[in-house]
Amino acid sequence: MRRLDGQVAIVTGGGTGIGRETAKLLAAEGARVVIAGRRKPPLDEVVGEIERAGGDAAARHADVSNVDEAAALGQWTRETYGRVDVLVNNAGHSSLNRTAFVEHDEWLRVVDVNLNGIYALTRAVLPVMMEQGGGTIVTVASLAALRPGLISGAAYGAAKAAARNFMQFVLTTLRDRGIRATTIVPAEVDTPILDKRPHPPDTGARATMMQAEDVAQAIVFCVTLPPRAVIEEIVMSPTVARDASAEIATARRLGEAQAHRGQRRKA
Questions:
Q1: Annotation marks residue 81 as catalytic
Q2: Hey, CA dihedral for 16, 17, 21, 26, is it positive or negative?
């Protein structure tokens, strides 16, 4: 018997990167996986991969920055499968302006994806998990939650820190109901989100980073432990540190220039 036979899992941001690899590993362990994201074609590709490997998966369009869509995803999963055993909050978004001068609309978008969506989806699945007598919630945060800076940006680091705090709250207050809440805190991972940085890292820089499957394996480790044990937090980083000074300089220069342009428009 596989370790997750009979269980149902939701993975957000499941079309690419960490979410994609996590969905495939969870399905290989026997879970029925609901793969959610904003773009349907990549989700369908992952479902196809899982089904060809003999697994069970479904694709659901959901923009978790919209709290109603996030809540609806949890409700649909419960109504369709009758249970929710695992939730992986993986969807992420960062602002182009990485400085403290980030515009308010950019700030709100980052907070909506990285914090409010996690709150809404977690809130949607907690009742069924408590009725079942247990469940595991894993949130992929970022090392930016612990070490903020211009690589990740002001908004992203703040939102990830808040999401980490929320997971700690869920575990502290609901562990006696069988709820496990884990935060994965990775440093740089070679995923498509890097392409949206002000100064995208080159091939050489990416070669030093962790890969999506590294984080996915950590997630699966957390959810397949016996219910009597919980991993509260895992901090992950590349073995070899790299020089990111050029990227930091670009983020500072472009962010401050954007802020100055915005001030001139308002003047």
A1: no
A2: negative
User: 3-class SS at 236?
Assistant: strand
Active-site hit among 156, 183, 185, 219: 156
Reported pTM: 0.92
pLDDT digits (tens, 9 = 90+) for 19-62: 999 999 999 999 999 999 999 999 999 999 999 999 999 999 99
Give the Å distances, CA to CA, from 175 to 134, 168, 179.
9, 10, 5
Q: What is the pLDDT of residues 68-116, one digit of tens each?
A: 999 999 999 999 999 999 999 999 888 888 889 999 999 999 999 999 9
d(CA 167, CA 155): 19
Residues in the chain: 267
Cα torsion at 11, 15, 21, 24 (round to 10°)?
A: 70
In the chain, at which residue ranges do the beta strands (DSSP E only) sit? 8-12, 32-37, 56-61, 86-89, 135-140, 179-186, 189-190, 210-211, 233-236
